[in-house]
Input
Amino acid sequence: MSVSLTERHYGEYTAGRSGKMKLSTKGRYGLRALIDLAQYSGDGPVSITSISVRQDLSERYLEQLMSLLKKAGLVRSIRGAGGGYVLAKDTKEISVGDVLRALEGSLEPVDCPGLDPEGGCKAADSCVTKYVWKRINESITRTVDEISLDQLVEESRKKCASDADRTKCKN
Amino acid sequence: MSVSLTERHYGEYTAGRSGKMKLSTKGRYGLRALIDLAQYSGDGPVSITSISVRQDLSERYLEQLMSLLKKAGLVRSIRGAGGGYVLAKDTKEISVGDVLRALEGSLEPVDCPGLDPEGGCKAADSCVTKYVWKRINESITRTVDEISLDQLVEESRKKCASDADRTKCKN
DNA sequence: AGAAATCCCAGTAAATTACTAGGAAATATG
DNA sequence: CATATTTCCTAGTAATTTACTGGGATTTCT
Output
């Protein structure tokens, strides 16, 4: 009989029964983590451990998400004891779109080769659906780019201020 | 040595290297098929075989997509020789949103239990990201619901009318 | 020196996608 | 009435992706 010692962070396979057009846990967890980071930074860098405890996320997994955010230039890291992460820009300068693209890659609903010139889509010029994917893409982009991290942090502050039980404040 | 007799419709695993937030082939193929159906109906029902030839899609797979469209009440079927499919409504009454939801299921980027009342999201009331997913959902919904099949058929007609080589007209 | 962090890479079970396959049932036509 | 054509239904499967876990090197503060 084998016993697993490490408790599994009970997984969300793209939030229960999935359809498509879903954000993965990367985008969902990552945005929560970044809001948390924004809230708790100010007195020095914020460690992955502290975020993972507050937000109830796997420490190891979060590590990977932070790496993506770093690569995208949204956060900076400070190594060694007492280290952690800080935002690389002001919260007003970071949009939800920046965060999600860093974590999920392109948010375009279809990687249509007809959308960029060098692609080799056979039906490129007679392609009608391309127009649809473009419209969807524009509307998603517009939406996520007009929400700033700043707004979310503010919103969270309001909600959690009135909340006696801080552990419930998980974004 | 074994030889495969059935040629595989060389697959698109969600359009090459995927990210997330992607439409599956169901949505992409299905919309093309429905545009085709709209264009070629008028003189009786349109068969799956004819659509699959014109649009270069797997006949068997398309069958499954049509079944979904039927279940959603977008098309009606006529069985037996000379049968096929016809639109169940006018093209003006069918939106891209109707089609995509029939094929892909919900288009919401996150199945957030906090979004419907009876869900059991622990962080429900302090959940800030929920607001983001709601905004994205609204913008996608608005966009896909304001494009009608009618518009796409018209667009396709314009493009293909000036196209000598009909085989290129694949939507 | 030692603890606390980030960093980096590898592995894996579960889920999903994008099909293929087989055959039953219905219907028009010769 | 036989036959071809067509929808209908269910099952199977290889490739791919997701959502993690794990080990260990490296950096830095104390």
User: Anything to note?
Assistant: Residues 129-145 of chain A form the longest helix (17 residues). The mean pLDDT of chain A is 85. The first strand of chain A starts at residue 75 and ends at 78. Chain A touches chain B through 55 residues (CB under 8 Å).
